[in-house]
Amino acid sequence: MARALSTLTWPWLLVLVVPVAIGIVLGLNGLWRLTDWVAFYQQPGLFKSIGYSLLVAIIAPLLALYSALLISACAQHTGAWRRTRQWLAPLLSMPHVAFAVGLLFLLSPSGWLVRLLQELFSLFPQPPVNWWPQEKSLSLMILVLVLKEIPFLLFMIAASAQQFPQQQWQRLAATMGYGSYVSWWKIMRPLLVRQLKLPFFAVVVYSLAVVDIAALVGPNTPAPLAVEVVNWQRSFVPVDQSFAAFGSFILLVAAAFMYALVHWHEGWVFKGARQQWWFMRRPWGVLAIGLGRLWQPLAVVLVIGSLAVLISWSFSFGWYYPALRPDSWQVNLWVQEWPFLQQPLLHSLSLALITAVIALSLSVLLLEHQRKRNQQWPDWIVLLPLLVPQVSLVLGWVSLQSMLGITPRVWSSYLAVIIGHIIFALPYSYLVLASHYRNFNQRYMSVAATLGYSRWQAWWHIQWPLLRAPLLFSAAMAFAVSIAQYVPTLLLGNGRITTLTTETVALASGGDRALIALYSLLQALLPLLIFSAVLVAGRTRGVNANAGN
Amino acid sequence: MLVINNLTIRLQDAEQALLTLPEVCVKKGEVAVLMGASGSGKSTALRWLIGESQPDFDISGQVLLNDTDITEFTTQDRDIGLLFQNVLLFPHMTVAENLAFALPKRLRKAKPEEKREHVQAMLASMEMADFGEVYPETLSGGQQARIGLARALMNEPAALLLDEPFSALDMALRDSIRSWTYKLLQEWQVPALVVSHDIADSESAQQVIYV
Amino acid sequence: MGRALPPLAAELMRRCWLALLLACVPLMAGADSSASTNSKAWQQQVAAAQGKTVYFYAWGGSQGVNNYLRWAGRELRQQYGIRLEHVKVDDIATAVTVVMSQAEGAGAVDLMWINGENFRTLKQAGLLRGKLDVTIPNVSELAFDKLPLNSDFGEPVEGFEVPWGIGQFHLLARADSFSGEQLSPAQLVQFAQENPNRFTYPAPPEFHGTTFLKSLLVALSEQDSRLYEPVTEAAATELLPLLWGYLDKLHPLLWRQGEVFAQSVSEQQRLLADGVLDIAFSFNPNELEVAAQAGRLPANLKRATLGAEAITNSHYLAIPVSAQAPAAAEVVIQFLVSRAAQQQKAQLSGWGDPSVRRDMLQQQQLFPATAELHSSWQDYLERAWLERYQH
Question: Of A59, A179, C84, C349, whose CB is crowded by the most CB atoms within 10 A?
């Protein structure tokens, strides 16, 4: 670790490591109040709360990872990465909160599905008591996280699978009598699990520390630890402030513990590659393959379904169970909200665009810097902000703001929010780009150099057009991450910076579904538009999607 | 004339030199072949020759091009052309655009018509006048090799380096493209250094250096 | 403080189901004719406030509130040239935390919507601007003499905050779920037995959830006077078993057997609209009409008090000492308690929050009222509930 850090030059150290270090150190301020630990230990429900968090952080990422692996195994024949990207984009781009809201409208015991069943068969005059998924349950929270993380992992799989001579191996395995699924499972899966270790760990940490999703669809007696930490942080009783620091510390320790598990899992997968798994045998194998194939239509249905309910709700007036349609439709809400949407819309857009441009530029500079020195930095250096619970970090930065005595003004808050967004967007933008960038054939650049073009001229004429798709995709990813940021925007922005997301979450605490739907819809549409634009603009004539690799 | 003096390549911190060349001199119109097994450092030598930094190696030596010491020159200023085994035409540019991209600096600001004339003349001399508007992926291996050489020559380099230039071609095509290439290099009077492990590449060359 | 509800208005005690007409008095904004409105100092303050921006931290979960503040923003800009920025928070405690971390005159919060524990904390920490009752002319128009506005959950207001509106805890229920306009705790259990899975409450320390516990305690203990004094162990050991015995009986009959509770009152109301529950809560006496007009809740609901009387409290406006535009914030308060602004606030097509002005009390439709418990019970009840039911 120290060695890896010593290879960084100080500007990069400043950009990548220092903010995280500051966040951790200042976020844990209050840890030394030892007497409060006793009271903390006696907090009602503390252990259940920690248990919930651990359970979610173990089950959701594992389910997502293995679903993604299974889906990739089934998609391998059809899986040109461009196509993968096309249908992944809408799911990838949908903010967690909007997705959760949509899914809830769709699947909950009083959702569309149940209402449809009531309409058709009169099964449920009242919303069913025994139904899955139940609102506010661990299983619903896990479902939302799994569905939302699968696309990210699929994307990472598609990106790293290119590094291996998949088809040759497959042919080799076929000559030895292995079917294509089994050979993929035995050869590619262990390698991918190793390759995906850090992105997977980032998913684990996200699941461990997620606040908005947990508050929206998770259990609340007690809530998962991250939610409790935010509640303590919000409280102004001094002892609760200590509790927030303790909870934050426990999240960090839990993250470290999870890292050990992820590491152990990797080793176990490597050792276990030779075993026959029960689900590779018939009939389970067939079932698993069927499920894997089901994913794509399922994803499309879920995305379109959630968008459809969001649109319907935003135009509805008076919509009560068991009605399939609202009492009446109205455009009033849109008309009434439109003037007030403009500022948050403008903030969201400008923040996301600036974040996207800067995160992309930093990613390119980072990768160029490594290329020039012929180094490959371990990914954790760049991923650092994702490997630490977000709440802990942001709390630290907020206390830095007040320690520096910064008077909150609009511009300084805006600046703070941008910095926060960039810190959390950069790792995603970098992850999406890195493998494509590293696989780019540098000899193109050598040729251009011998023709007399400077590095940046050659970059502009050759590398940019050839890598346009992944470069734009990386920017779109940063854009989507920025749109979805809640905790950093709220706390670093001092309330000066309202975005669609802060408005959505504030409204989600209220009961006005039509309004929640309207804001969630807009929150979901922005990244969707950007991703669609990127898919169109990412095409370069004469280049197939894999060019440059 | 391309002259290499006292080239020594070491892996960083290693005692033993990976490759040493006391003196190599390639005259105008000459083809010299640098023969060696893989791992013998010849690719490293080639990258050093075009002036790419290679942090993993300690390299000492001197390069002279037409009596100018270019050892400290940047890649851009060296005036040395480069051709790789898989040609690496830029896939997002048409054949004509590839060639136009390689025009020597003095012509890059010229009028479009003038540039087009130069490109067309080059295409004609390669007997590929009709292929200007085509994207490289539609060309055959032999056609790509020809356009690759055309692009290298277009830049009017003072010397040309060829890295395993024929190994990616079909056996049937290899000999004919090789003799065509060597002949063309002679016509253009460009000193050429070919790096190869294929003994056939050295047969018709004027000079062979084993490393 | 005794069991006394002395200042609690005659108006309120008079079984105020008397529905009175709204809005027959046409009004002009800013027409308040208090002497000090014309004072030179105040006029200078109003002039100086022109062009200032006031950041108002207030709960953003209700469209009625948000739309009202948008209206207020427009009026303030026209009348005073002040920009009002509503910073929507999902819990005002967030703003309290912010205020506590920021230095004088360099804070993010200019104005906040506050009461109870939040107020007491900031006041006792010396973080609130005082003498608001002296500086702001319209404060003299407020019904301090008729409503219990001088004490906020037992904490004397003393000019550190200005009353803004009134809350009364009550139930919204499907019209056919029970009869009558009152529901005793025993009737509630009976309802739950007949309709299992159809009732839940927001989990304390959510405000409405805690108030539900308080209402039960008041009814079960038959308004024991110790509830209105600082909590003592003796009082708690004697009174709380009543509550726990009751809840132990109730919980298995709740929605999802009490394994999960509503996160907030908004969620509880949404579950009511979704047909999952038959009963939800509200603190806004006009919620029934307001929600029906907004299409949020079905029209076939009725309202009722839990026990004989509704727990009643007020909510306030306060200015932190760290405010960057405190003088302009005072002008905003002046406007928000003006007759026009209070009238607009009470509109059933908007927020529907009852007025605190003396000259508007006649128009209000309120429940029979009972006072808040002493504020120390709040925290005690919340912690005890969590210890008992969340583990």
Answer: C84
The ipTM of this complex is 0.92
When mean pLDDT is compared over C59-63, C93-97, C128-132, the highest value belongs to C128-132
Contact in structure between C371 and C171 (CB atoms under 8 Å): no
How far apart (Å, rounded) are the C-alpha atoms in residues C21 and C18?
10
Q: Which chains touch A (3 or more CB pairs under 8 A)?
A: B, C
Element (H, E) at B24: strand B17-26
Chains B and A touch (3+ CB pairs under 8 A): yes
Q: Which residues contact A169 (CB under 8 A, 6 or more apart)?
A: A183, A187, A188
Residue A506 has pLDDT above 80, yes or no: no
Q: Is the pLDDT of residue A152 over 60?
A: yes
Residue with tokens 């910095």: A419
> What are A310-358's pLDDT values in tens digits?
999 999 999 999 999 999 999 999 999 999 999 999 999 999 999 999 9
| Pairwise CB contact (< 8 Å): B91 & A543 | yes
Checking DSSP bridges between strand C170-174 and strand C301-306, what pairing results, if any?
antiparallel
Could you tell me which residues come within 8 angstroms of residue C244 by beta carbon, excluding any fewer than 6 positions away? C388
Cβ-based contacts of A505 with chain C (< 8 Å): 90
How far apart CA C391 and CA A43 sit, in angstroms, is 9
Name which of A220, A237, A328, A497 to mutate to probe chain C: the one with the most chain C Cβ atoms within 10 A of its Cβ: A220
The whole-model pTM stands at 0.86
SS (H, E, C) A317-349: ECCCCCCCCCCEECCHHHHHHHHHHHHHHHHHH
Q: Which residues of B touch A460 (CB under 8 A)?
A: none
Confidence at residue C8, expressed as pLDDT on a 0 to 100 scale: 40
The least confident of A270-284, A315-329, A336-350, A494-508 is: A270-284
Whether the per-residue pLDDT at A85 is higher than 70: the answer is no
Name B7's bridge partners.
B21
Taking CA A126 as the corner, what is the angle to CA A123 and CA A131, rounded to the nearest 5 degrees? 70
The continuous run of DSSP H or E covering C102 comes out as none
Alpha-carbon distance A214 to A225, whole Å?
Answer: 10
Mean pLDDT (whole number) for A253-276: 85
Q: Which residue of A has its CA nearest to B46?
A: A446
* Among A187, A192, A195, CA closest to A168: A187
CA distance C97 to A537: 46
CB contact under 8 A, C57 and A222: no
Least confident of A270-274, B98-102, C310-314: A270-274
* Residue at C372: amino acid letter: E
